[in-house]
Design a protein that fits this description.
This protein has 416 residues and is of the alpha/beta class. The chain has two domains: 117 residues, Urease, subunit C, domain 1 (Roll), CATH 2.30.40; 286 residues, Metal-dependent hydrolases (TIM Barrel). Helix content is 35%, strand content 23%. Strands 1, 2, 3, 4, 5, 14, 15 and 16 form an eight-stranded mixed sheet that branches. An eight-stranded parallel sheet has the order 6-7-8-9-10-11-12-13. Helix 4 crosses helix 5, helix 5 packs parallel to helix 6 and helix 7 runs parallel beside helix 8. The protein starts with a strand and ends with a strand.
């Protein structure tokens, strides 16, 4: 057997699963994280070709490159299923306002927030937007992310929303990231338009144009008080579905907004945020295929209550975790930190949090057959840690830089 790359003497090869493992993981199964000690993984043609204990390494093998991972763990790359990675500029001035007591809604009412980002983005060319966004793309690669969803939502015109989606598609071509794209025209209502007129633009101009250029995989709506109602959310989501864009919705971030119910009603793949959910929302999710996705970075940055992870897991739901990387409410795409926050603030076990950020987020992006676990035939998207004592050390040592080497599609990317 010939490998293009062999990683050997691995202290712990984490998230090893046979092909066909039922996914997403839900309830009690989220606490199970298979780890092979003293292991190896062989990569050929960009995919995982073999893995097991060192004693099982095939005799007579050859390898073009060998990495000795003695003392280190190997994980499948993080799959970040909710980001706003493409944006024009940071918003640290609003960060200062928040410190002084301004709420998210107060900042938005005075022209900040999403409208602030939209004003900056409209002034930027597509090439300049790509350049600044690529910096963030390389940042998350170095932090162990191998697949990412990127939303539009800071254009708020058909022309600028399409510009964002083109940049997102170009990131998928100019890096080794696996990229899925989402049209989030319904992120806010631009000042110069009525809500009714803007919804009509989304439905009759923006969605058809994005579909014609094949720029989006999904449709999203910010279902929240002061933004879009559940009925408006369902109307926009159904319009997207008519053009092949599957719904994935912002739901229940600031209030019990009805977003979860709208997501289940429209067959959304996921409902994301969930800082404000109760028994009713959990009941709806239990009787659906919709994946609840927590965004702990946003709850942390805004000082909101964290999604009730324990309640959702104990109800048998398949919880996922993503970063929500964006300039206003979650200015970090570091999935290692998100896993730490899930453990520290949401009381998830390390195993649950890692499953939520790999297998379950892969399902939330319909990538479960290619990513999310160490499985023969899946893409070789992996990262090798520095020497660490255990799996739990990843969330325990929050803020530490623990990744030594990243491998995407079988190619080594040395972390700087």
């Amino acid at each position: 057997m010939h490998f293009d790359l062999l990683i050997q003497n691995i202290k712990g090869l984490a998230q090893v699963r046979p092909f066909g493992t039922p996914t997403p993981l839900r309830g009690e199964t989220m606490s199970q994280l298979p780890v092979i000690t003293d292991g190896f993984v062989g990569i050929a043609e960009g995919k995982i070709a073999a893995f097991g204990k060192m004693a099982e390494l095939p005799s007579g093998y050859s390898a073009q490159k060998v990495i000795d991972a003695r003392g280190c763990f190997v994980f499948p790359s993080w799959v970040d299923s909710h980001t706003h990675l493409v944006f024009a500029a940071s918003r640290e001035e609003e960060f200062i306002l928040k410190i002084k007591g301004a709420t998210y809604e107060e900042i938005a009412l005075h022209g900040g927030g999403i409208l602030n980002s939209a004003a900056k983005l409209r002034q930027m060319s597509e090439d300049d937007l790509l350049e600044t966004s690529l910096t963030r793309a390389h940042e998350i690669i170095n932090q162990g992310t191998g697949a990412v969803e990127i939303k539009s939502g800071y254009g708020l015109t058909t022309r600028d929303e399409l510009k964002m989606l083109r940049v997102a598609r170009r990131i998928g071509k100019e890096t080794s990231l696996t990229v899925k794209t989402t049209l989030l025209g319904a992120h806010a209502v631009p000042k110069e338009k009525s809500k009714a007129d803007y919804i009509a633009e989304i439905i009759y101009e923006m969605i058809p144009a994005a579909a014609e250029e094949k720029l989006a995989d999904y449709i999203d709506v910010f279902c929240e008080q002061g933004f879009f109602t559940p009925d408006e959310t369902a109307q926009i989501a159904e319009a997207g579905k008519r053009y092949g864009l599957k719904p994935r919705l912002h739901a229940n971030q600031l209030h019990r907004s009805g977003g979860v119910q709208a997501g289940v009603k429209t067959g959304a793949i996921s409902v994301d945020h969930l800082e404000n959910v109760g028994e009713e929302e959990i009941h709806y999710l239990k009787n659906s295929a919709t994946i609840p996705t927590a965004l702990p970075g946003a709850a942390f940055f805004l000082g909101l209550s964290f999604p009730p992870a324990r309640t959702m897991i104990e109800a048998g739901l398949p919880l996922a975790i993503a970063s929500d990387y964006n300039p206003g409410s979650a200015p970090s795409g570091n999935m290692n930190l998100m896993v730490s926050l899930a453990c520290i603030k949401m009381k998830m076990t390390p195993e649950e949090a890692i499953n939520a950020a790999t297998v379950n987020t892969a399902c939330a992006l319909e990538l479960q057959h290619a990513l999310g676990s160490i499985t023969i035939g899946k893409l070789a998207n992996l990262f090798i840690t520095k020497p660490i004592p255990s799996v739990a050390f990843i969330p325990y040592a929050y803020g530490s830089s623990l990744i030594d080497t990243v491998i995407l599609k079988g190619k080594v990317i040395q972390v700087k």
